[in-house]
UniProtKB/TrEMBL annotation:
<keyword id="KW-0732">Signal</keyword>
<dbReference type="InterPro" id="IPR006311">
    <property type="entry name" value="TAT_signal"/>
</dbReference>
<feature type="domain" description="BD-FAE-like">
    <location>
        <begin position="138"/>
        <end position="271"/>
    </location>
</feature>
<dbReference type="Pfam" id="PF20434">
    <property type="entry name" value="BD-FAE"/>
</dbReference>
<dbReference type="InterPro" id="IPR029058">
    <property type="entry name" value="AB_hydrolase_fold"/>
</dbReference>
<dbReference type="InterPro" id="IPR049492">
    <property type="entry name" value="BD-FAE-like_dom"/>
</dbReference>
<dbReference type="InterPro" id="IPR048124">
    <property type="entry name" value="Tannase_B"/>
</dbReference>
<protein>
    <submittedName>
        <fullName>Tat pathway signal sequence domain protein</fullName>
    </submittedName>
</protein>
Length: 515
């Protein structure tokens, strides 16, 4: 596809093919196969720079792709920026995924940096519930740039002098000639891991420091990035990586950037009702069934108590439960976020904002408000109920857990029990528990305490993002903080889904943690 062929096929058993050639030999990165390009590219603050870089067009990162179009990556290496030569031979490597909605991404036709495409066609009725078609209002958009309003980090990373790798990935809409879904869970994480292994196996050929791989992604891509960071070298992916013909190398990464990660899917319905359960939905303007909401909320309370997470270092909070979580969110995230936002306004802008938002008290240059005031301000929930495992199997996540020719399946006991599609079984299929582990960073962090996880974490979320509960990102941050990792976590005031308000700070953070 697209002129990409492999010189040989491995049978991928034991890292060698039938003639004894190692998988790594078959995946050699051809250093000379690039075009040198000079473009004007904006840095993270929007300033244009003249950037000369080597662009390595799409090549497969596995020897046995089930889809040679999507399982490819492109590499961009800076050579000269504003006339000054750049030596990227030991630079951090930014692995920028363009995943959204657990849909496929492709770089097969990319001719330069930042052209990864998110393929939103074929979502059919299985869009994430409440997600507007065509990507308005902070939803998803197909095409270059991937997610509406989302800064493409590949370009500013290149302008900062980093090596940029953009992987294509299989996604939930893909079917083969027999109608079988081959891009559903765990394909996206298998592909990202295979890309990391390819980079590591290409040490010395792909320029950059393979011990300083930094992953980025937003929403489903943020979830995948967090999962990549949490699951470094976990053995549970081994059969999948072997089958794909991934390189024989570590898939651990150094640092993880995750914007509004849509993760911990099997617990997200409860968290969603706990957080947004009393708000009317965007689609109908009506409040959801409060008895279902109550049942789901109590599942969240039980789950949260069992996590035994403590508030972030310096937050002054001990164990976080459903009882004190609103205080934790208010004190550690929401009020500081509003304070920062208001402090940056001019006095008259601030006055106008405060006059329109009387739920906020501004005193001694600090914003205070109640949880109820904050909720009324957000006003609406994006999703219907349950938000992720829909009773009628209509959520995008139902498709993400599809298998074979079954497009959508339940992945929680509660929704399987309450199924409305006429399924004979009221339970999840027997492979689901393992699939959930393969897809959930919390498993690797809390159950495995994975020593090969990434130790540096950048997590961001908009305070008006109702694509998932605020607790999902906060729990991820606590999980890594409580393990002793370095976490930079903040919420953007009044910002919706998939926003990135401080890409320049992220680029600087990469320099700091990798330096
Ligand atoms: C995305 C958004 C969702 O609401 C969801 O359930 C899954 C993914 C996204 O924007 O990637």
């Amino acid at each position: 596809v697209g002129g990409i062929t492999l010189t040989a096929q491995a049978d991928n058993t034991g890292g060698t093919d039938s003639k004894g050639a190692s998988v790594n030999d078959l995946l050699v990165f051809d250093q000379d196969d690039f075009t040198e390009k000079t473009e004007s590219i904006a840095d993270a603050s929007g300033t244009e720079h003249s950037v000369t870089y080597r662009f390595y067009k799409a090549r497969n990162y596995v020897t046995n792709p089930s889809d040679s179009d999507h399982q490819t990556l492109v590499v961009s290496v800076p050579v000269k920026i504003d006339g000054t030569a750049v030596d990227a031979s030991n630079a951090p490597i930014v692995l920028a995924n363009a995943v959204g909605a657990y849909m496929p991404t492709s770089v097969a036709e990319a001719t330069g940096v930042g052209q990864a495409k998110l393929e939103m066609t074929g979502m059919g009725g299985a869009m994430p519930s409440g997600m507007p078609p065509g990507g308005t209002g902070g939803g998803m958009a197909g095409g270059t740039g991937a997610i509406n309003g989302m800064v493409n980090l590949a370009k500013p990373a290149l302008v900062a002098g980093y090596v940029v790798v953009e992987p294509g990935t299989r996604g939930r809409s893909l079917t083969d000639s027999s109608g079988s879904y081959y891009g559903t869970a765990p394909a996206v994480i298998v592909d990202l891991k295979a890309a990391v292994r390819y980079i590591r196996a290409s040490k010395g050929r792909i320029p950059g420091n393979v011990e300083r791989i930094v992953s980025t992604g937003t929403s489903a891509g943020g979830a995948s990035s967090a999962l990549l960071g949490a699951s470094g070298d976990s053995e549970i992916y081994e059969p999948y990586l072997r089958e794909a013909g991934a390189a024989d190398a570590s898939d651990a990464i150094f640092a993880t950037g995750a914007w509004c990660p849509i993760t911990d899917l099997e617990h997200a319905d409860g968290a969603y009702e706990w957080n947004w359960g009393t708000l009317p939905t965007q689609t109908t303007g009506k409040t959801v069934d409060q008895s279902v909401s109550k049942e789901l909320r109590s599942q969240f309370a039980e789950y949260q108590a069992g996590l035994k997470l403590r508030g972030l270092k310096g937050s002054g909070f001990g164990k976080i439960t459903a009882r004190n979580y609103t205080d934790y969110l208010l004190e550690h995230y929401l009020r500081p976020s509003a304070t920062k936002y208001l402090a940056a306004l001019s006095a008259s802008e601030r006055e106008t904002y405060l006059a329109r938002n009387t739920f906020i008290t501004w005193k001694n240059n600090r914003a205070t408000f109640t949880w109820e005031g904050y909720l009324a301000h957000v006003a609406q929930r994006k999703k219907t109920q349950p938000a992720f495992d829909a009773f009628d199997l209509s959520a995008g996540e139902n498709n993400e857990f599809g298998k074979g020719t079954t497009k959508a399946r339940h992945f929680t006991a509660y929704s399987a029990k309450n199924d409305t599609t006429g399924l004979s079984s009221k339970r999840v299929d027997s492979d689901i528990p393992e699939k959930l582990k393969l897809m959930n960073p919390m498993f690797h962090l809390l159950e495995e305490r994975n020593p090969n996880r990434s130790k540096h974490w950048w997590v961001r979320l908009g305070t008006s993002d109702t694509d998932t509960a605020l607790t999902v990102a906060a729990n991820l941050a606590m999980a890594v903080d409580n393990l002793g990792d370095d976490v930079d976590h903040a919420y953007y005031w009044d910002k919706g889904h998939a926003t990135n308000e401080d890409p320049g700070d992220f680029i600087k953070w990469v320099a700091k943690v990798t330096g």
